[in-house]
Amino acid sequence: MKICILPGDGIGPEIISHAVRVLQALDLKFEMAEAPVGGAGYRALGHPLPESTLKLAKESDAILFGAVGDFSLDTLPRELRPEQAILGLRRELNLFANFRPALVYPELVQASSLKPEVVGGLDILIIRELTGDIYFGQPRGIRTLENGEREGFDTMRYSESEIKRVAHVAFQAAAKRGRRLCSVDKANVLDTMQLWREVVTQVGRDYPDIELSHMYVDNCAMQLLKNPKQFDVIVTGNMFGDILSDEASMLTGSIGMLPSASLNEHRFGLYEPIHGSAPDIAGQDIANPLATILSGAMMLRYTFAEAEAADRIEAAVKRVLAQGLRTADIFEPGTQKVGTKVMGDAVLAAL
Ligand code: NAD
After folding, report:
1. 340-350 vs 290-302: helix crossing angle, rounded to 10
2. Structural domains of the chain in order of their starting residue, each with its CATH number
3. Whole-prediction pTM value?
C-alpha cells in the first residue's frame, strides 16, 4: 500500500502530519513518500505540480492531500498558481468521481444552521462527476457579435461512456451503504441531461437491488434544506455536483470535519479535506485536523478495501468528540477547546 503524501500550503503540513500518524498507528503496512505541491511545489521546484511530484503520485496507490493555496503567489500567471496542482492531478490521473460525504455527528448538531431535527443523524454521500460537463466542454469563450455586443458561451457535454462509468461507481457506493441512489439532473430542459437520465437508468438494470430515483437539480437544492435525510447517495454531473456538494457540506456547519475522495476506475484515489489552506490560521496550532484524518479513513475504505481499519479511525474521531474535545472552529461553551496537536494526540489515544 503505497501512499503519496502531499501536504501543500498553509495549514496543509500541520493537519497532514496528524493523519499520517493515525495511519501509521494501525497494524497495516504502508509505504509513504512525501513531495511538495501547490505553493510549496512552486517555491521548491518552480511549478505547483512538479514533475517529480506527479511521478511519485503516479507510482502510488493513493494520494493523501493537505490543501493548496497561497495568497502571496496570486500574482503569478494562472498556470503557475498553487490551485493548478489539484486540477493537474485530476486530469493526469483521470480522477472522474468525486465523493463528498456530509455527516452530522450528534455532538456537533448545534453547529448546523438548520434545526437539529432536520439534520441530526444526517449521513449522505454526494458523488460528483469531475472531469466532464460544461467545465470542460468545447467550444467556449467570449466573442463579439455583429452588432458589437460581446457574448459569453460554454458547452455542456457528456458522452455515454462518461455517464456510465460514474453511474457504476455510484451504484457500487450505494451498495455499500443504504442501497438508495438518487440521480440529479435537469432532464426537463437540457438534452445532455436527458441522455444522463437515460444512461443512469440503463446502468441501474445491472443493480436490481439498489433503489434508483431521479430528481431535478432545482428540487434537489430545496430538498437538501427541507429534508436532507431522505437521501442516501446522490450522483450528479460536474456543475450541479459542485454546487450541491457545497450546499450539503454546509448542512453540517463544520468545514473542518469533512473529508473527500476523487477516484479513477482503478480505485486510485486522491483523498483530501474539503477545506482550503486556511492561511488566516496557518502555523498557529488551531486548525482542525479531523477532516484530514477522516480522509485517511476514506482512503482505507475506497482504495485499500480495509473497511475495518476505516471504521476504527471513524470510531476514534467519534470518541474524541464524545469526550468533549473541540478545536476552535467547532467549539461551543461547555466543551474543551484544544489545539491541532492535542486533537491529533487524542485521536491516536482513542485509536
Ligand atoms: P479555506 O477553506 O481555506 O478557509 C475558509 C475558512 O474556514 C477560513 O476562515 C479558515 O480559517 C476556516 N478553516 C478552513 N479549514 C479549517 C480547519 N481545518 N480548521 C479550522 N478552520 C478552518 O478557504 P479560503 O479562505 O477561501 O481559501 C484559502 C486558500 O485555499 C485559497 O488560496 C484557496 O484557493 C485555497 N483552497 C484550496 C482548496 C484545496 O486545496 N482543495 C480548496 C478550497 C480553497
Report:
1. 40
2. 1-96+264-351 (3.40.718.10), 100-130+157-255 (3.40.718.10)
3. 0.93
